[in-house]
Amino acid sequence: MSDTAERIHEDALPGHESKLSPKPQWQPRYAGSDRLAGKVAIITGADSGIGRAVAALYAREGADIAIVYLLEDDDAAETQRIVEKEGRKAITIRGDLGDKAFCDDVVAQTLKAFGRIDILVNNAGEQHPDKDITDISEEQLRHTFQTNIFSMFFLVQSARPHLKPGAAIINCTSVTMYQGSAELLDYSATKGAITAFTRSLSENLVGDGIRVNAVAPGPIWTPLNPCGGASPEKLEHFGESTPMGGPGQPNEVAPAFLFLACEDSSYMSGQVLHPNGGTIVNG
């Protein structure tokens, strides 16, 4: 893999939530009820956006968190502070999920810190807008697939020997998998792969008592889009095309990840939830 800092420099992705205005809303909206008491969760992309909101909500529900992120140290430290304020433990793990050795290290560090893994949230992703397919470089194509789908294979492979019956895997796909996106050809293709991976992995693991589901957010206000993941034209009207008329907030998506992680969804596997502002898809 090429140097991470060089890769990120091109579009400043995934971006710092600390520099974003207005700030995304990550705060849990209700009191916890111990739905994840005693659990340990690995959450990728947990430094900001949806990942931070999921980490905050999981912590409120009793889980300790491994916060996995690329290079935004300040954001990751803030997510750790949020988790610890909820009375739970958190570790931060910095690196590139497109690297299998790093994914192995994520699992090793989580086990060293907490001794178990109950929930794996594959949330990290990258996207690059291109108006024409000929504008997508080979390097970008490889990086997008490495970050968005290869990482999920790598992490599940590393975590699988440590997942016991009752464990849950939740993958982040996208409304673009169902609708398509004229500007996000490579990103949308990875999200299609993630949905197929979710359904197939569910079939593979459900007999061992491990559930695999996914969440397909619509346009959500996170650092990903304003920091280079959307064209200026699209960003100007971000989320306006949804039936609800605007983008969602991370704390409107996090409860879907909680539902799929806890016993409330004990009879669900291979499914996708759609917090997308009212857009009807064939899910």
Automatic annotation (TrEMBL):
<dbReference type="Pfam" id="PF13561">
    <property type="entry name" value="adh_short_C2"/>
</dbReference>
<comment type="similarity">
    <text>Belongs to the short-chain dehydrogenases/reductases (SDR) family.</text>
</comment>
<dbReference type="InterPro" id="IPR002347">
    <property type="entry name" value="SDR_fam"/>
</dbReference>
<feature type="region of interest" description="Disordered">
    <location>
        <begin position="1"/>
        <end position="28"/>
    </location>
</feature>
<dbReference type="GO" id="GO:0016614">
    <property type="term" value="F:oxidoreductase activity, acting on CH-OH group of donors"/>
</dbReference>
<dbReference type="InterPro" id="IPR036291">
    <property type="entry name" value="NAD(P)-bd_dom_sf"/>
</dbReference>
<dbReference type="InterPro" id="IPR020904">
    <property type="entry name" value="Sc_DH/Rdtase_CS"/>
</dbReference>
<protein>
    <submittedName>
        <fullName>SDR family oxidoreductase</fullName>
    </submittedName>
</protein>
<feature type="compositionally biased region" description="Basic and acidic residues">
    <location>
        <begin position="1"/>
        <end position="20"/>
    </location>
</feature>
<keyword id="KW-0560">Oxidoreductase</keyword>
